[in-house]
Structures are given as structure tokens and as C-alpha cells.
Write a structure and sequence with these properties.
The complex is a heterodimer.
Chain A: E1 2-11, E2 19-29, E3 34-39, H1 45-53, E4 60-65, E5 68-69, H2 75-78, E6 82-85, H3 99-107, H4 121-132, H5 151-163, E7 169-173, H6 181-198, E8 201-205, H7 209-214, E9 218-223, E10 226-231, H8 241-252, H9 259-263
Parallel strand pairs in A: 3-8, 3-9, 6-7, 7-8
Antiparallel strand pairs in A: 1-2, 1-4, 4-5, 9-10
Chain B: H1 2-29, H2 36-52, H3 57-80, H4 86-106, E1 117-119, H5 126-137, H6 139-149, H7 160-179, H8 183-193, H9 195-200, H10 205-231, E2 233-235, H11 242-257, H12 262-284, H13 294-335
Helix pairs in contact in B: 1-7, 1-10, 1-11, 1-12, 2-3, 2-4, 2-10, 3-4, 3-10, 7-12, 8-10, 11-12, 11-13, 12-13
The chains are: A alpha/beta, B mainly alpha.
The structure holds adenosine-5'-triphosphate and magnesium ion (MG).
Chain lengths: 264, 339
């Protein structure tokens, strides 16, 4: 479904600020895989997500989605295959537009946008039933401006919008990190529900190890631009946080800086 | 006085189309587009040139609209493909259009070199076309009779112009409202609101910016084409300061009506354009002011329209804060005997 091959990325190459962000990344996702990604700050997790979404292009290597090579495909074109939720709750929605207008934008993701009315009665009914899945009563506030919603509500809406057209790949980059614990839990639960409902192929970055263990069928750990550990479907169920820490120590020969990882 | 105000209302309604264009760029796309000063004249020049060359006024106006559209697209290309910042893209296009507009008007001269003015005194326009039908209806006489009975003289020479411009502007407003709710319109609005978001929903923001600027300047040129036919001349200087006038209209309208829905915001912009013209007409009648002072007055109007709402807002917040504070103290005092 998703294939990253030999991805390398160096920022500011040839300057004193040179930074190897990704070093020989290889990753294959089968349809329906839900991979959680952990790793310390600066490990290259976001850079890898941006390679997939097209916000960045690799110096070397190929990205393919569903056997199509998309390495050079511009971000906006690639977006038809991808659903994305950003860390910043403000990033995934248009604040001065209404809830239903935002959903209408998500709805036309993989169709050509025409001079058809964005929200007609038929679509409004459909949007309303979809919003009911969030259990946030947003279905009764279709004409409220999204800028008025709380961070948690906006993130839930972003999640719904990202998954609305059943994208080939769903990319979640610390999408619960900016929320308070109860809201984060709500979004985590919704993520699980929405991903399972459509069996979406998903990549989720998180700093919360427990969340990384609870969700998904696979797990990868990144450090210094490399994937240092891959846990497959068979091994993941029994895995615990101490297992992961020990594993890190064995590979890197040093203790994991875990304050943020645990508390995430 | 009445005829002066009557004229301002007519003009204001025509300028409202330009203001709607400015609203599309400044507010909807969040792109401060200065092409307007040039594209307004492009509309006026193109329409005047074609009318003088013998084309039907409606054809001339349509071509003027298309010319404005291309001018806007060029600004969009400079910004998106040339990576030039929005303000500079508009300024570059504005000065380029100055020369192009001279050339457009020059097409009516024998040597086809630039020309800075085309009079339309004896030419047929959209308006004269309409009068030939309108004069037969006899509504002018009826309305003016009423005014005379109310003691208002002199009376306007015709109500036909007002009717034509009202119909045109209402149609344009309805089209803009409709467009902003289509799938493409929603994408353009989201481009002004959150580019990262709309790109993640597979929209080509470059193309949407170019399209939005094109439509905006098409409206501006349309307004210019109508003003040329209304005033019966096109002049290279017609567009000077037009962007500020457009902005003044948008801001005045928003200050009066607010921006709750698209429908009310575009209505606010239209009314803002008319109100601006009325303020302008009144200012001109003050004895010690000269026509040359108008640019200064326009600047002052815009500054006031920008500053007053801020001051009022702050005042309101302070008031409600003081009120809340007073309530707090009240409950504290009320609570003491219990404690
Ligand atoms: N545009 C850029 N220019 C230069 N360096 C960059 C750029 N983007 C990222 N980097 C660097 O690349 C490295 C990897 O960054 P990245 O954002 O992928 O980390 P991350 O794993 O997402 O970290 P975090 O957990 O903090 O989000 C970091 O050292 C970062 O400073
Ligand atoms: Mg990151």
C-alpha cells in the first residue's frame, strides 16, 4: 500500500547547520496496517511524514502509494490519496468557515471541484449523520464557524474530515499532543473507531508510549534519522513499555531519555 | 443637493462592483491586491476604445471584463509562479497596466500610439441604449412629478440610470454570493483562510489564487467600463487611489453591518460603496474644500473607518470588564456576613 525505499534527507547540506534528518528509511505498509511511530525529539518522524505527504521531497529514494511512484508528485495532487491530521488543532480546518463548509471541502477531496453547490440538502443530511459519530453534538451546529470550536472539537472535526473520503493512507502526526488528557483520550478513541470502521492504512506518530502500544497492529521506533526497531503484528500484543526501553538500550547502548516518552 | 446625492448613489452602486472585487481579494483570499488601480482603467479604456471603434456597448463591456480577468491572472502568476510577494506583484502589474492602458486607448488614434483620454460624448453606451426604451415607459415623469409635489427641485434628468445600475449590481452580488458557496468558491475561501489545510484536501492553491485574482479584477474592470460609459469618458487617471476607495467601501460596510454571513457581508460592501460616495459628495460641498483635497479626505475616511471600530471595541471590552469586576465585588460583600 505504502512503500518507502532508501529515503535520505539532509537539511542545509554543505553548511555548518547540516543535519541528516533521514538516513536510509525503508518501510512497507500492507493494506489495513496501523503503524504507530515513537522516537525522541528530532528523530525524523515528522520529516518522514512530510516525505509521504509531499510537503518535502527526499534527496534520494522513492515513495510509492498503491504501486504508483509519487516521489515527484506535488503535495496537492498527492493529497487525494492521503488523509492528514496535524499536531496543531488550528491547522486542519478553516476557522472562518462553517462546520458544514469545512466538511464539504473534505468531501470534494478526490473529485474535481466544480460550480456545484458545496453544501446542498442531500449532502447536509449526510454530513450530519457523519458528525453524529463524534458524539460531540456538532451535528446540531452545522452553521457554527469552526474558529469558535474548542481545540478538542476542532481536532475531532479534523479527524473526521481526514478520514471522510476513506483515503488510501491516513497520516497522524502527534495529533493528540496539544490537547488536555481527557480530550486526548477522546481523540484517541475516535481515531481507533474511525480507522477500524474503514480499515484504513494508518501511520501515527506519538510521544505517548502507552498510546503507541494500545493502538495499531505494528510499531516502529525511530532515532537519529533511522528506523531502529520494527515490531510486527505477531509480537506487538504482549509488548510493554519496559520491553521497549530495554530494546532501545540494547540497540543504542545507552538509556532512553524517557521523561517525555512516558508522560507524553 | 438632491441631484448631487442622487448622482452619488448612482456612482456608488457602480463602484460597488469594484468594491466586491476588492472584497474578494482583500478579505476572501487575504491577498492585498493593488492591481485594482490599473485594472479599473483597463476596463474603462477597453470599453471606451471599442465603443469608439463602433462595437456594440455590451460587447465592449464584456471584452473589458475579460481584459480585467487577464490582468488579475497576471498578478496571480507573478505571485504564485514568480514567487513575488503579493503587494509587489500588484504594484508591478499596476504600473505595467498604466502603459498598456495608454496603448489600449491609443488604438483609437490614427498613429495607434498611446492616448490618455477618450471622450464618449456622442457615442452610444449601455445607458443610452436603455434610455431609448425607458423614455417610452414614462416612469421618469411620474416619479419626478411626485418629487415636485414634495417640493424637491431640481429633479434628476432620468431614473433609468439608477434602475440599470441597481439591476446590474444586484445580479453581480447574487452571482458572487452563489459563487462563494460552490465547491470552487469554498476552496478559494479556504485558500484565504488556511492554505495548508486546503492543500491537504488536494486543492491547487496556486491555481485558486490566480482564479480568485482574475475574478476580482474582472469585477473591477466591469466597474471601470460602466463608469466610463456613465461619465462619458475614459481617462488614464481614473484609477488613481481606486484601491483605497474599494478598501474604504469594504471597511465602512463591514463596520456598519458586520460580517456574519456571506450574504450580509457582500450587502455590506455594496452599501459601504454607496455610503462612501455620499460622504464624498457631502465633503465636496463644504466651501473651503477643493476637489484636490479628495484623496486626503479618502485617506482620512479609511483611517477613521479602521480606527473607530477598534476604539469602540476596546471601550466595550473595558465596560464589560468593569461590570464583571463590580459584580464580583458585590458577591464578595454579599458573602461576608455568612462567613
Ligand atoms: N526545514 C528544516 N530545515 C532544517 N532542519 C530541519 C528542518 N526540518 C526538520 N529539521 C531537523 O531535522 C531533524 C528531524 O526533525 P523532525 O521534525 O522530523 O523530528 P521529529 O522526530 O518529528 O521530532 P519531534 O518529536 O520533536 O516532533 C531535527 O533535528 C530538525 O531540527
Ligand atoms: Mg515532529
Amino acid at each position: 500500500m505504502l512503500k518507502l525505499e532508501h529515503i535520505n534527507k539532509i537539511f542545509n547540506e554543505g553548511t555548518p547547520d547540516e543535519k541528516v534528518a533521514l538516513n536510509e528509511i525503508n518501510l512497507h505498509l500492507a493494506p489495513g496496517d496501523f503503524v504507530t511511530i515513537i522516537g525522541s525529539n528530532g528523530a525524523g518522524k515528522s520529516t518522514m511524514m512530510n516525505m509521504i505527504s509531499g510537503a518535502l521531497t527526499p534527496d534520494y529514494g522513492t515513495v510509492s502509494i498503491d504501486t504508483t511512484d509519487v516521489t515527484r508528485m506535488p503535495e496537492y495532487k498527492r493529497s487525494q490519496y492521503l488523509g492528514r491530521v496535524f499536531q496543531d488543532p488550528m491547522a486542519g480546518t478553516a476557522p472562518s468557515m462553517t462546520i458544514e463548509e469545512n466538511i464539504a471541502i473534505a468531501y470534494s477531496r478526490n473529485a474535481k471541484r466544480t460550480l456545484r453547490r458545496g453544501v446542498d440538502r442531500e449532502r447536509r443530511d449526510f454530513f450530519r449523520t457523519s458528525l453524529e459519530r463524534l458524539h460531540l453534538n456538532l451535528e446540531n451546529r452545522l452553521n457554527a464557524k469552526v474558529g469558535l470550536l474548542s481545540g478538542g472539537e476542532r481536532q475531532a472535526l479534523s479527524l473526521l474530515m481526514a478520514t471522510f473520503t476513506k483515503p488510501a493512507i491516513l497520516l497522524l502526526d502527534e495529533h493528540t499532543a496539544a490537547l488536555d488528557p481527557s480530550r486526548a483520550e477522546l481523540i484517541t478513541r475516535l481515531t481507533k473507531e474511525l480507522v477500524e470502521a474503514d480499515n484504513l492504512t494508518t501511520l501515527m506518530v506519538t510521544h505517548n508510549m502507552q498510546q503507541a502500544l494500545d493502538l495499531g497492529n505494528r510499531l516502529i521506533m525511530m532515532d537519529k534519522g533511522q528506523i531502529i526497531l520494527q515490531i510486527d503484528e505477531a509480537t506487538k500484543p504482549g509488548l510493554t513499555i519496559p520491553d521497549l526501553m530495554a530494546e532501545f538500550e540494547r540497540i543504542r547502548g545507552e538509556k532512553m531519555n524517557s521523561d517525555r516518552a512516558l508522560l507524553g | 443637493m438632491f441631484t448631487a446625492l442622487f448622482g452619488s448613489v448612482e456612482q456608488g452602486i457602480i463602484y460597488a462592483i469594484m468594491a466586491l472585487g476588492v472584497y474578494l481579494t482583500f478579505r476572501v483570499l487575504d491577498f492585498p491586491d493593488l492591481t485594482v488601480d490599473g485594472s479599473f482603467v483597463t476596463g474603462a479604456a477597453t470599453a471606451a476604445m471599442m465603443i469608439v471603434l463602433g462595437y456594440h456597448p455590451i460587447i465592449a463591456t464584456l471584452v473589458a471584463i475579460v481584459a480585467g480577468f487577464f490582468a488579475g491572472c497576471m498578478t496571480g502568476l507573478l505571485h504564485t509562479k514568480g514567487k513575488i510577494n503579493p503587494l509587489l506583484s500588484g504594484i508591478l502589474m499596476m504600473i505595467a497596466l498604466w502603459s498598456i492602458n495608454l496603448r489600449i486607448m491609443g488604438l483609437t488614434a490614427d498613429n495607434t500610439i498611446g492616448r490618455s483620454n477618450i471622450p464618449l460624448l456622442n457615442e452610444g453606451t449601455i445607458f443610452t441604449q436603455f434610455y431609448s426604451f425607458w423614455s417610452k415607459v414614462g416612469i421618469d415623469d411620474a416619479l419626478n412629478g411626485m418629487l415636485k409635489n414634495m417640493g424637491i427641485t431640481p429633479v434628476p434628468s432620468t431614473w433609468g440610470t439608477l434602475l440599470v445600475v441597481v439591476i446590474i449590481t444586484v445580479i453581480i452580488k447574487i452571482i458572487v454570493d452563489w459563487f462563494l458557496k460552490t465547491e470552487v468558491g469554498l476552496a478559494i475561501r479556504a485558500t484565504g483562510d488556511n492554505k495548508r489545510m486546503i492543500r491537504s484536501f488536494s486543492a491547487n492553491t496556486d491555481r485558486l489564487i490566480i482564479l480568485g485574482l482574475g475574478i476580482s479584477n474582472a469585477l473591477v474592470a466591469f466597474s471601470g467600463a460602466l463608469i466610463a460609459q456613465y461619465a462619458k469618458y475614459a481617462d488614464i487617471g481614473l484609477g488613481i487611489g481606486m484601491i483605497v476607495i474599494g478598501l474604504a467601501s469594504v471597511i465602512i460596510g463591514e463596520a456598519i453591518f458586520g460580517t456574519k454571513t456571506i450574504f450580509s457581508t457582500t450587502l455590506a460592501v455594496v452599501v459601504g460603496a454607496i455610503v462612501y460616495r455620499i460622504i464624498y459628495a457631502i465633503a465636496l460641498r463644504i466651501d473651503w474644500l477643493d476637489t484636490g483635497d479628495m484623496k486626503l479626505i479618502t485617506a482620512v475616511i479609511v483611517i477613521l473607518a479602521l480606527v473607530i471600530p477598534q476604539v469602540l471595541n476596546k471601550r466595550k471590552q473595558q465596560k464589560s470588564k468593569a461590570k464583571r469586576l463590580a459584580e464580583k465585588q458585590l458577591t464578595k460583600q454579599g458573602g461576608q456576613p455568612l462567613a
